[in-house]
């Protein structure tokens, strides 16, 4: 029987290269995830031409929701692929995949083509966000592992900010999506550069009957509560991130909206970065549960203020939007630390993955209905706010959930 592999405390040049690639892949995942949001009004108008508003809203909803469905399926599928072919190769291939399908959108002849490309780019993004963390957990030295993983959590909102920056300088959506060449090339070049996990290599050599089995039957209540807590935050978060640029466009007068849409996305990304950075300090001061209660309550209050009391583009609206995104950023740091603690080590990865991806199933449906119910609810602001009521559901779920604990 093989003995467990000890991770060396020495941080080699190849390990740093692997970390940098993981950081870049996560950053570009954030950029690709929200790039469609900033270009969405012009993409749909160009591909549909003159059409009735309901058709425009429905097509927009399909484009946004199919990305999240791809993300959900990819998050599960690439985890399995990573167990089969290795963490390093899976990271590189998922990275290149979302780059390829982002690039292809730049040549889209129809909106159906865009929907398919967004599904597969989401499939790749879901893989990157799962496999990169697994890779770093298995190869990085224990003493600095928590810090280095924490820094990675800031990469995704940096990508969100980057999406706004791309739109700010590149007005044409086809040219904007040609930026997919960057993750495609880096992903392919990283195949020989990423350091593979020695723990994964050893596990592949072990007989199957020596590998521990996973049993989640004893933790179904934690799974339900974890899925509700994460899912409600995710629904509200993506309802905002997916549709705010389109909402901004709808409240503008005599403007093509390019600068305003990109500014709103940069503010969302910048606030999320700040929130992620300070989330650890918030947790130390308040504890996990109180910090989550603050996030859910703050998100609902600010959605009420932003989407119900702003009928025009203004500095006040942008300030409120920035505060909302700070709460979103804090929530991601808090949830990443809280949910895994609900489960013992032997089922922690599988259970946390189920909580995350169950939430994404409902999120993709919510993002679709934000767009499809715009007319019925009287505008994008009302539609987005309608889905912000899920924050109150999350608030109740946190209140009823267990105190934070570490199970072994």
Compile the SSE list and pairings:
Blueprint: H1 13-48, H2 53-85, H3 87-105, H4 111-139, H5 142-152, H6 155-169, H7 173-177, H8 181-189, H9 198-205, H10 220-250, H11 258-286, H12 288-308, H13 315-338, H14 345-372, H15 374-377, H16 380-388, H17 390-400
Helix pairs in contact: 1-2, 1-3, 1-4, 1-6, 1-10, 1-11, 2-3, 2-4, 2-14, 3-4, 3-8, 6-11, 10-11, 10-14, 10-16, 10-17, 11-12, 11-13, 12-13, 12-16, 12-17, 14-16
Give an account of the 3D structure:
The protein has 408 residues and is mainly α. It has 17 helices and no strands. It has helices at residues 13-48, 53-85, 87-105, 111-139, 142-152, 155-169, 173-177, 181-189, 198-205, 220-250, 258-286, 288-308, 315-338, 345-372, 374-377, 380-388, 390-400. Helix 3 packs antiparallel against helix 8. The radius of gyration is 21 Å and the shape is globular. The protein starts with 12 loop residues before the first helix and ends in an 8-residue tail after the last helix.
Question: What are the defining features of this structure?
Answer:
408 residues; mainly alpha; globular
Question: How much helix, percentage-wise, in residues?
Answer: over 70%
Overall radius of gyration: 21 Å
SSE run: HHHHHHHHHHHHHHHHH
Multimeric organization: single chain
CA-to-CA gap between the ends?
A: 24 Å
What is the overall silhouette?
globular
| Percent in strands | under 5%
By DSSP, the count of extended strands is 0
Number of helices: 17
In terms of per-residue confidence, which ranges show pLDDT below 50 for 5 or more consecutive residues?
1-5
Major β-sheet profile:
none
Indicate the structural class: mainly alpha
Integer average pLDDT = 83
